Amino acid sequence: MTVQPVLIADTWRASASSGTFQAENPSTGEPLREVYPLSSWADIDAALEAATAAADELRQASPDRLADFLERYADAIEKHSEALVAMAHAETALPASPRLADVELPRTSGQLRQAARAAREGSWALPTIDTQAGIRSCHEPLGPVFVFGPNNFPFAFNSIAGGDFAAAIATGCPVIAKGNTSHPGTTRLLGEAAHAAAQQAGLPAGTVQLLYRTSHDDGARAVADPRTGATGYTGSRSAGLVLKAAADAAGKPIYLELSSINPVVMLPGAIRSRGEEVATEFTTSCLMGTGQFCTNPGVVILLAGAETEKFIDAVAEKFKAAPCGTLLSSGVARALEKNVARLVDSGAKLLTGGSPVDEPGFHYANTLLRVAAEEFLRDPEAFQIEAFGNSSLLVVADDVKQVSAVVDRLEGNLTGCVYSDSAGSDDGMYAEVAPRLRAKVGRLLNDKMPTGVAVSPAMNHGGPYPATGHPGFTAVGIPASLRRFSALVCYDNVRPTRLPAILQDKNARGTWRWIDGVWSQSDVAGQSG
Q: 374 an active-site residue?
């Protein structure tokens, strides 16, 4: 049996493993051929040593070297797209086209190139200069970053290619990628491309490293290690909170994306004026990718009435008629079945679905549930379980006051949406509900389902706890996402020649800087340029 090597200190080498694992083919339920190691602490320790040495060198490196690597890597991903898409499809059952080849892979290479531009230009670091006080500040890299990638985006959120990886590298932080066990082969192919690009760009050994799996105890030890600068994590709430507890106890930054039910409020005017259209939008959004998006609309809040009942019937019929997609793994299938059962036990009524589909692979019937708002309010925690997959819960309120009460009891979420009448009949209710919902979410939408996450500088893919571990940061949106992996540092009365290049009087890169209260791309006043 051949066990795949890990990437440590610029070398693909045999793991100091404590066991092995294989990924599953979700379409068949059978294990895939390749075998991967469960790394022991010896692997993690070696990776941290190499990353620490790399971090020292990267602090002195030109941003051009980082940008060169990111651009070379983006080119390599596109060059090897056919093999990457084939592997990701085998490991996740996500459609090769359009999902993987036409949407997610181009997004991934695009993120890398955006990060390269941010690294070169430098404004992400918020350089600030007070000439009268002789004080200058900027953001600088924290050091080695662990990235834990999720199961549902094998490219765009991959631990060795996705947004966290791109942001950490552009900041100047080495990355120790901890692959997701659902798609280790995809991560290995990306790691090979990243390793080659790092060598071509002349980055120090230890800038890019890859481990596939660790024990929970070793993962918690890693994020709390004194050599660790920060951690980016996307995954289950239970595992993420274990890492958060360890990192918090050690005073280490950790940026978490945990769980989100992404509430959608359907006001009556929207249902009355375009109910069929909205029912189609919701069904498409909820069932897209078999519901395995972090922005899947998992709770819909409606006002009781005859039109609402017609809307609910229409959605239920659409759920029944839609094909059942494939879930990412046996673990996802088990968790979905368990959490739907918990919702039913708490008092939710099944309208359709609610059971596994008896065919090869991992499938669960499209599931729609409903509960009265009065019952939701008796135990809001029970009805906010994230049933990750192709399911959603309808909460039916008696009046807008009860809608507001439900919104007030929501946990923090990535997104929230309000559908309202375009002619204005819902404006009064919107004015009451929307400010309450805005306080509960990172991104507020109107008349648009939340599933898509645009890679835009203005995007916030974050939100109040437990959607994320900190409401002030985003995992999508460059340059803001870079600052998660940085420290704000200040230079007081430091000689000009000893300052970092970005804070010197001469602005060689044309970086936007805050100079004496004004944004400027110029040199500091009085200096030649």
A: no
